[in-house]
Amino acid sequence: MPRRPTYRRTYVSVPRRSINLLVGAGLVGAIAGVGSVATTSEGRDTIVAIATDIGIATGMARERSAKEGDYWLRCDDARAVGAAPIYRGEPGYREGLDADNDGIACEPYRGK
Length: 112
What we know:
Layout: H1 16-37, H2 41-58, H3 75-80, E1 86-87, E2 104-105
Antiparallel strand pairs: 1-2
């Protein structure tokens, strides 16, 4: 039986030191940029507004807080007005909306 040829894998590596230097420089630049913006009250307001928008867009924050008398038939209704997620003990929370019974109803859908 003939022998099969063996192949050798070759890797091209970028020096780790260069990568670490570039990542470090990027982090320092980002921190300095945010820090310089945060020195004024308008800059701080801008940073807070952007962080709030990101939280709402990802479903981790609400557009409006829970109000007395809130009752949602479905989570889609709560999401439509910006009241989701709803935490146990808040107006509008009920076990029927909390599918995994973790105390947070109408959580953002993460897909599988």
